[in-house]
Amino acid sequence: IRVRPLSGSEKKKTEKNIIQFPGDGAIWLDLGISTKSFTFNVMFEPEACQSDVFDNCGMTRLIDMALNGYACTAFAFGQTGSGKTHTITGPPELVQPDLHGLIPRSFQYLFHLMKKKPTNGYRIRASYLEIYNEQVQDLLNPSQKKQLAVRWSKDSGFYVENLFSIECESMEDLMAVLEEGLKNRAVGSNSFNEHSSRSHSMLTLNIDSEVADPEDENLYITKHGKLTFVDLAGAEKTKTSGSENNFPTQEHITESNNINRSLLVLGNCISALGDSKKRNGHIPYRDSKLTKLLADSLGGQGVTLMIACVAPSGVNAVETMNTLRYAKRARRIKTKPVIKMDPREKLIMSLKREVKILRSENHYLRQQVILKQIQLQNNENMHLSNAYYI
Ligand SMILES: Nc1ncnc2c1ncn2[C@@H]1O[C@H](COP(=O)(O)OP(=O)(O)OP(=O)(O)O)[C@@H](O)[C@H]1O
């Protein structure tokens, strides 16, 4: 959980801070008539800086796992203006490195790790999309006005057809991808946030690494890791949000309705996955493009880091309660992470393992045969010597 500081305008309106941190991951919410208490894995108080969040939220472990072939996702959720973009990207201009969010810091850490790990090489391909009004747009190919289709295949699950992906060899390449995407992303302003994200964005790095099989140095295997950063559009009440002049336009109402609908589906999926009785039943991934694309991260074979962002002021109490309730449910979700490998290489590896097991079994049986022969020989010799004495 990350709690942002009171904003300038909240301070001006002398909004009350309703959040307290008693320690050990606990958070208390002062609702006037009662106090609600929640406990989470990690709690970032308003004073926490961007590097505190990166170092302690589990992101470094996630990057390490992505390099080892797992599909990993980091995403922020919470109401509009609660600090999701600040946490995932940092201020959109990206000019102040100390304010950089998880994405630029992860790029740096990724290259640092790649230099340290012994491999035959890495290949990184980046893609960046947004879901705006239930339509998928390619942020790296904005001239392509046609919306992209979300398809399903047995091998890859849900994926976006014809999504542009760029091969990146350096930190500069990755930063250029981020800058390009941010430039093309749909933003607007509402009464809570001057630079509000009006779309859900997904930046994905496909990381292929060729590593030697620990059991056979001559055999190289390719692992297909994935690292996805998701910055969700913020839930908001259509009636109260509005644009700068506080008067919601039709465009704004459509945007808000689409954002709220897809977040509702995400909430339904999280609720079902977090409930042991419903987990194995129908999960409504297909009800929105966002949940289709997050299906594997939420309930499949991926590893997911969720950061719930909340505002500390009393005026946001209801939304903060909602976010914390979702986060509580999300904590109960269990995925079954597996390393993604080329199916052919996977088969070769499993056959090699089988050969190894059969060889050791063969070795054991040969030894047993030799032992039996020695025993027989000894018995025969005994008979002969006994016969001699008789
Ligand atoms: N931890 C923080 N420290 C300092 N400023 C913050 C922090 N979190 C958010 N802010 C500031 O609060 C404002 C709103 O944050 P941000 O744009 O990240 O919200 P959001 O949740 O992404 O909103 P939306 O859903 O509308 O896009 C920004 O000006 C941002 O710089």
TrEMBL record:
<keyword id="KW-0547">Nucleotide-binding</keyword>
<dbReference type="GO" id="GO:0008017">
    <property type="term" value="F:microtubule binding"/>
</dbReference>
<feature type="binding site">
    <location>
        <begin position="78"/>
        <end position="85"/>
    </location>
    <ligand>
        <name>ATP</name>
    </ligand>
</feature>
<keyword id="KW-0963">Cytoplasm</keyword>
<dbReference type="InterPro" id="IPR001752">
    <property type="entry name" value="Kinesin_motor_dom"/>
</dbReference>
<feature type="domain" description="Kinesin motor">
    <location>
        <begin position="1"/>
        <end position="333"/>
    </location>
</feature>
<dbReference type="GO" id="GO:0007018">
    <property type="term" value="P:microtubule-based movement"/>
</dbReference>
<dbReference type="InterPro" id="IPR019821">
    <property type="entry name" value="Kinesin_motor_CS"/>
</dbReference>
<comment type="similarity">
    <text>Belongs to the TRAFAC class myosin-kinesin ATPase superfamily. Kinesin family.</text>
</comment>
<dbReference type="GO" id="GO:0005524">
    <property type="term" value="F:ATP binding"/>
</dbReference>
<keyword id="KW-0505">Motor protein</keyword>
<dbReference type="GO" id="GO:0005874">
    <property type="term" value="C:microtubule"/>
</dbReference>
<dbReference type="GO" id="GO:0003777">
    <property type="term" value="F:microtubule motor activity"/>
</dbReference>
<dbReference type="GO" id="GO:0051231">
    <property type="term" value="P:spindle elongation"/>
</dbReference>
<dbReference type="InterPro" id="IPR027417">
    <property type="entry name" value="P-loop_NTPase"/>
</dbReference>
<dbReference type="InterPro" id="IPR036961">
    <property type="entry name" value="Kinesin_motor_dom_sf"/>
</dbReference>
<dbReference type="InterPro" id="IPR027640">
    <property type="entry name" value="Kinesin-like_fam"/>
</dbReference>
<dbReference type="Pfam" id="PF00225">
    <property type="entry name" value="Kinesin"/>
</dbReference>
<dbReference type="GO" id="GO:0005875">
    <property type="term" value="C:microtubule associated complex"/>
</dbReference>
<protein>
    <recommendedName>
        <fullName>Kinesin-like protein</fullName>
    </recommendedName>
</protein>
<keyword id="KW-0493">Microtubule</keyword>
<dbReference type="GO" id="GO:0007052">
    <property type="term" value="P:mitotic spindle organization"/>
</dbReference>
<keyword id="KW-0067">ATP-binding</keyword>
<keyword id="KW-0206">Cytoskeleton</keyword>
